[in-house]
UniProtKB/TrEMBL annotation:
Name of the protein: DNA-binding response OmpR family regulator
Keyword Transcription regulation assigned: yes
CDD domains the UniProt entry points to: REC_OmpR, trans_reg_C
Gene Ontology BP annotations: regulation of DNA-templated transcription
PROSITE patterns the record matches: OMPR_PHOB (PS51755), RESPONSE_REGULATORY (PS50110)
Key words of the record: DNA-binding, Phosphoprotein, Transcription, Transcription regulation, Two-component regulatory system
UniProt modified residues of type 4-aspartylphosphate: D51
SUPFAM superfamilies: CheY-like
Species whose genome carries this gene: Paraburkholderia rhizosphaerae
Residue ranges annotated for the Response regulatory domain, each copy included: 2-117
Listed InterPro entries: CheY-like_superfamily (IPR011006), OmpR/PhoB-type_DNA-bd (IPR001867), Sig_transdc_resp-reg_receiver (IPR001789), WalR-like (IPR039420), WH-like_DNA-bd_sf (IPR036388)
Pfam name, any one: Trans_reg_C
Length: 229
């Protein structure tokens, strides 16, 4: 997942960067409002961490331009030292999705980001994911491909869900390991073994391989765009 940090305090930006990168996020940083808006429009982000007090352009203006002019609905988590109700209402009025007052816990930042991204992707209410002929029922954890039931152990189920939630996107080894095992990282070959097991379970002889290894980068679930739902 890709997160943009727009923060002019080097220490805060560095702490956020290190924490999110350690959780497997792909992270970039802008230290002015002007560069932050340029970064926000130049790429597709899963979420934006946005400070309010920025040189060049304040965070409220940046958020308003992102919503009303650029028509982008990327989730925005505002970070600020301003903690009154009026301050928060102003932030929401300019298009923020959530609001966190400094000083904050990095774990709370991570939890709020996870919740924002899940809502943005429609994963809170959605009961199943379907792509590339594979259907995953999020309530029962039943898996099938083209009507054929597939039995998977918990870690492979979790891995399949991560890949299906971002079809065609290359997910790096660090990102996958962080989502699967958190801070207790496994041996170097464990992820590869789970990928192998999942591949074998998904594809019978004559069926196309769904999980592609992108050498030096990571793995992705290959699906035509119209298949992903």
């Amino acid at each position: 997942m890709k997160v943009l940090i727009v923060e002019d305090d080097p220490a805060i930006a560095a702490n956020l960067y290190d924490y999110l990168e350690g959780r497997g996020f792909e992270v970039d940083v802008a230290d002015t409002g002007t560069s932050g808006l340029r970064f926000a429009l130049a790429d597709a982000w899963d979420a934006i961490l946005l400070d309010l007090t920025l040189p060049g352009m304040d965070g409220l203006t940046l958020c308003r331009k992102l919503r009303s002019e650029a028509r982008r609905d990327t989730p925005v988590l505002m970070l600020t030292a301003k903690d009154t109700l009026d301050d928060k209402l102003e932030g929401f009025g300019h298009g923020a999705d959530d609001y966190l007052v400094k000083p904050f816990s990095l774990k709370e930042v991570g939890a709020r980001l996870d919740a924002l991204i899940k809502r943005y992707r429609g994963q809170v209410a959605r009961q199943e994911i379907f792509c590339a002929g594979v259907r995953l029922d999020l309530a029962t954890l039943a898996v099938e491909r083209n009507g054929r039931a597939i039995r998977l152990k918990p870690k492979c189920l979790h891995l399949l869900r991560i890949l299906m939630q971002s079809p065609n996107r290359v997910l790096g080894r660090a990102e996958l390991e962080a989502q699967l095992w958190g801070e207790e990282l496994p041996d170097s070959d464990t992820l590869r073994a789970h990928i192998y097991t999942l591949r074998k379970a998904l594809s019978q002889p004559g069926e196309a391989e769904l999980i592609e290894t992108v050498h030096g980068l990571g793995y992705r679930l290959v699906a035509e765009d119209r298949d992903a739902a």
